[in-house]
Amino acid sequence: MHAASTHLAWLVLLPPLGAAAGITLLALNRPAVSARLSIGAILAAFGVSLVLFTQGVEGRTAWTWLSIDDGRGTFVAELGLRLDHLSCLMLLVVTGVGSVIHIYSLGYMRGDRSVGRYFAGLSLFSFSMLGIVLADNFLMLFICWELVGVSSYLLIGFWFERPAAADASKKAFLTNRLGDFGFLLGIILLWAAFGTLDFAELEQRIGAGTTPWLPSLVGLLIFCGAVGKSAQFPLHVWLPDAMEGPTPVSALIHAATMVAAGVYMLCRVFFVFAAPGSAAPDVIAWVGGGTALLAALIAVQQNDIKRILAYSTLSQLGYMVLAVGLAGMAAGAHPVPAMYHLTTHACFKALLFLGAGSVICALRHEQDIWRMGGLARRMPITFWTFLAATLALCGIPPFSGFFSKDAILALAWERQPVLLGLAVAVAFLTSFYMFRLVWVAFLGPAKSQAPDHARESPAVMTLPLLVLTVPSVVAGFWGIDSYLIEHFRPGEGLSAPGWLGQLTAPFHHAPVAAFSGLIAALLGIVFAWRLYSHRVQDPLPGLLDAAARPLRDKFYFDEFYGRLIAWTQDTLARGADAVDRWVIGGALVKGASGSIELCGRLLRLVQTGSLQTYAFLFVLGAVVAIVLMLGW
Amino acid sequence: MDSLTFIIFCPLIGAVLIALIPRSFEVLFRGITLGATGLSLAGALWIFSEFELGTARIQYEELVPWVYSLGINYHLGVDGLNVGLLLMGALVAFAATCVSSEIRERQKEFYLLLLLMTGGILGAFASLDLFFFYFFHELALVPTFIMIGVWGRGANRREAAFTITLYLSLGALIALVGLVALYLETGAHTFDVVAMTRHVAAHPVSESAQNIIFPLLMIGFGILVSLWPFHTWAPLGYGAAPTATAMLHAGVIKKFGLYGLLRIAVPLLPEGAQRWVGLLAVLCLGNLVYCGLVAMRQKNFGLLIANSSVAHMGFAFLGIASLSLIGVTGAVVVMIAHGLLAALTFGLGGYLHQRLGTLEMAQMGGLLRRLPFVGGVLIMAMLAGCGLPGFANFPGEILVLFGAFIRHPVIVSLAAWAGLIIGAVYALRAVRVMLHGELPQRRHDTPDAANAWRKLPYALLLAALVVFGCFPRLLTDRIVASAQQAIASVQGSSVAEIQHADDRLFGGSEPTKASIGQRGAFYAGQEGIAAGRSRRQSGCSIRLTGNAAHE
Amino acid sequence: MTVGLAHYLTVSVVLFCLGLLGVIARRNVVIVYMALELMLNATNLALVAFSRFNHNLEGQVMVFFIITVAAAEVAVGLALIVALYRKRQTAHVEDLASMRL
Amino acid sequence: MSDLTAIGLELAVMVTALAVLLLDLWTPPEQKRQLGYVAAIAVGVIFVASFAVLIPEPRMAFGGMYRLDELSLYFKRFFLLTALVVLLMSIEIADRIEAGFPEYCALHLFALTGMMLAASAYHFAMVFVALELIAVTFYILTSYQRRRLASLEAGVKYLVLSAVASAFLVYGIALVFGASGTLDFARLADRSNTGSHRMLELGLLLVFLGLTFKLASVPFQFWAPDVYQGAPTPTVAFLALGSKAAGVALLIRVFHEAAPAIGRGWHGLFAGVSAATMLYGVLCAIPQRNLKRLLGYSSIANGGLVFMGLSTFSAPGLSAVLYFLAAYLFTLGAAFFVLCLVAPTAEDADIPALTGLHRRSPLLAAALALSMVSLAGIPPLAGFFGKFLLIKAALENGPSWPAMYALASVALLTAVISISYYFGVIRAIYWPGETEREVVRDPEPIVLSGLTRAVLWFCIVGMLWLGIAPDKMLILAEHAVRALAL
Predict the structure, then answer these.
(1) C abuts B (3+ Cβ pairs < 8 Å)
(2) Residue B474 near residue B467, CB atoms below 8 Å
């Protein structure tokens, strides 16, 4: 549309990078400066994103980062920015939620001695996340993919002196790397097969048809990246631990944006999975559904407020991945439900985390919900915003979550009824554990001394809560889905019925899905009310008996992986080390040098010092020479 | 004096100066060394920036006949392959001088040897004559030995010094035999690489000779680069070496073997290369995976980074083994990036050793609180080491992986595993154990790098890593044309092989075949141009058409 | 039976080997010297015989050189023995093995 | 008269020797040392004068017994320069030479004459006389410190074994004479080319075996460490350089000129001897802790290298040998000079005793270290280029005779192993001591005279020159080899 204004996209990307670099180089020890730089940068990015969004700018702009033409298909790595509906929407989400959280951090991190480092990390994250959003080719995507990974690493380990935080950051990074391994292989394979990494060109070439096994393999490998980043089973273990980071970080990175990057990426490169005959979508759908269920089950028995939210995030990410998989199962479909849910989820999950942060701050870093209670009166703003977000998460109309979740359920109904059942079960569990949290922490009686001194957080923290409440509640009426459909199917998504029409549309469109989801959610609330409204201790372990333990212990995944790593990688490493020490370094190298020295020591015994020995040996040598040379 | 001679002789003249100045003027030694390496660095920077892009021509050429009867010339020059290496070498040398303020005794000898090493390795990179190439490299051998013995650390430094010296001499001598055999086999009666290359283009070395000389060079140079299983000298030696020596050796001198493979072995022995790179690729896994695993088990930070530096060499080998333009370019980038990175990590290791008196990781913890600068740089170095974008290693490793995939898909997969996961495991473990966690009581007074002068070497190296990482075209634009020339002779025969590999990978479906067919046609065109040049290559194009007929 | 070249040579070889045996086996340095002289004289015998049978005087000239050199050798050798005897009161070969390995 | 001009250089040396002996009579004891300078200056002058000798084409003298050509001139210059260094070395230890220092110098000059004659010998009688002149003077020289038992023991061993070798040689000569009827090289070359004769071959083999003694190579290498340990250091240097080079010169003469056909047929023998010698020298040297003995083994190993060059029977091989000898001159010159100064007796030459040398005298330390590096064959020093040429020559011969590849790999292997003990010396010089004994030793500085410094610098510069700018010397060596008409 506006060719020149596509360059504006750089203005989204560069301020956070500048802020990160500037803080690192100049303002690491100046909290106020660093905060201003960082917040200014994200606000600037938000402003530009808003302009891009409202102007409807589309197109691409690129800067060649690396380019080698070896005759075998040029290897071009461009930092290419692509502006379209998908990226513009995501830009808004990232910069919008990001801005709010940046400002919130100002209050939350007040008084910490490393604020500069914090904001540097946050800005670096913003930059790389925006890079993922804008990327128009796989290599740039991968670069930013790695960079969000590392900023997540730095921020989880922000309080590096706490062993738990340090371990969690390491775990997060390594687990992500496992996914990235597959991702990178997928990218290389794509390049080797099609000679390009550009999304648009790849879409064309894949569309032209390939060998049958290639899309499945590539699709699965690419999906590995999403499994890592979006914490899907079996690489989901890092996300709950990542809650060791500061709460705003959890809100921004581990709830709203970065973990959603996996889903965004799947939508962005949907053409890879949409190739006919690919087996990838089934796997994706089942992995997503499985993760959703698994995480929801675990969340039921968690007691740490942030961990509950973390498992909830996992579960919702599972939903989105499920949606992508479902979309890919039939030809010509589009992953709009996944993106839709991503958008609304970003708002209400960020809100939930910020609310949790507010509680944690008020309780002086108490995170156990069984030591809270009665907070609704003491922290009204926090409570009401939290409740709104919870309702959105549970999918109660007319909150935003209802619409996006319903879109997924409808899709499941269309494609794979078994998965619909699974999704509905997750919806039930979701509202159950969320209202368990609400009742135990906010409504029920105080369970310790901690809540007695709780006071509402300052405005710098509550204002962001209020700001985020707006989209959490009403985003369902903004026509996000039709805006997105416009991306995948230009010209199809323009019809926008009125408010009421939008509210009832799900029930017309796929009544079974809509009603079952709604009923499940309500049932969950009722169950939670019955079980938890007045308890000071969790009754569930008593009720479920032995079944509750695996839930509480997260199905023993950490233990299992610990063993697995100990058995495989550590054994390998120990073996390699032993071989290095004893076989190569010892037997071969030392053996060679030792045996040579031994030869020397033996040989020089000939030097007896007696001249007659020498003469004799000489004569012997002479005789040998004569016999050898003349054959006598 | 011409610019390259200037770069090489600055350190050597500095060394002579130091030798002549009496011991009592202790202040001067460091100053002279800083000045000499600084001048070299300035010269290298100048050449790097003035370097004309897009051509494989030798620039800044200097040629002085040296030994007529053997055809040895004092022949210097830069092209894309070595211009970056030269800059990297000068930079590392300067940084190594900066960190050497830890040396308190026998400064005269120390700086003299340091300058000797520097001059030698810069000379080796700038030389275009086999003899001088080898000659300059060997200048570093004795200084390394003495430095480890006198200023080294650890109880086993004696064993380390002898092991490294013997191992490196073995490698160098095997390579020397290869080089002499090459000289004799080409029949060009010259050691001048440029003249030899020209001669070989017209009269290729017989295939049987290539098949013998290439492995000689591969093993010989491989030992110098710590190719698995000839790598054990490296951790041992670097663990015991003083900081500056380890920086120069692991960073710069080690790249000599790789450079030799690229400059000499591959272009002059294309058929030998074709035949042997398979083995090279397998061995490089030994570096990447095996040494990575070994690094995971290390409890001493010095040994950890030493093993990791060995492991990283695998990428460079893999790039060379790809025999593709992308892979070879990547290998050169990896060489430069790893040089900077190794120097940085060894420099930081030296700093920690100086401050803490030990590098046992169990005795550290939480140091980031006390050492925000050094710790921060160390974290970045470790992240750079596991291939994080933004640092120069990333573009190099990516290029290598992409470039090598068609020829060695399985090996690339394993290499990616090693680079992404094993590398991250030990790097992050080191950060976790040393910098994160609680600070032990007795470490409460550990000082950070106090002033700008102390920070300079680390900042310089890190900045170079970041600049090349963010703007890799600074390197690749210089490298590509020369890399193309280096593998031009191989590519003729490799077209058919790649075609074959392509079919193996994607064979079957029509469209893919069609696209490859197009590429094949492209090659055929290239082939046509080159066909007249030599019989060997036309033989290849026959193979190519045969392949097509088979399909 | 006429005495031919072969006979001379046989004697010469036998002498040479005897000398060699003496050098290797005898313990007294003086006797070792005598054995050495024996070897040289074996050579002289051979040379003279060859000269005779080749009708060429060159060999005989050579013999004179050898005799002279042998004399010089023995002179030096005996002086050495004297010095050694003064120092160690022994002239036995087996006592001359302080430097070894 | 023309015969006398042909041997002008030898005559000059001889006259100098006699003059020194005569002057000794009128020199007061405290000034006897000065006669050393006289001898050294004279040798220096003769060395310079030797460059004035121009030989457009080879000249024969004394009825064909003596041949003056570029090859012999190269060797003569080598011997003269060696003698110069050795004489200067002797002056350093003049006060340790108990019996007659001027005679000591004069004896060296006689030996020098013998070597110079050997380089020109073109007749077996000349070979024998020259060799015996060398040998007999060395009997005296090795045992010159007659108050030291070690010196006497070395003398006796050297005498007996050398005499055995001479006996073999001379018996070989007799057989050659018997088989060919001549002792003249030129005539022998004519006759031996006509066909192989078993007795001739046996004779030449015995000559060969006799000469292996001079080169301290298998099977006659055993004497070297013992004699090197016991003899006065300058004498050892002369043995290691001069006497060995004389053997090389004769091997070249006999097997490349007198009987080239047989010699060429025996390249297997040369190669075998070469490999065995290198391995023996290197392996035995590994555990060695005494520097003089170490140099003995090292000299054996280097003899093996020389044999490798000889076994190529090619011009590049021989010029490599000549170059190697020149490199060896500067290298060993420096090493033995330092030894003279730091280790008055053999017992002091223990390698651990060198600890702290770099503090006692940096120049001595540097000279010794550089010579070890050069011996180890590492650039930028002379030894490297020498080895490089030898290995190149061997590989060059590979295509026609693949065993040369094996020989080259043995050379390679031994070169690597040898680094371990050469660097052991460097370690002792520069590294801080490890054991108590080594640390405590008080670093009393060694004061060097100006002349000493000059000689050391001369050797260092020589090593560097031959290592860095080998062109000139290589041209000389190639020129010398061209006289052989290979």
Answers:
(1) no
(2) yes
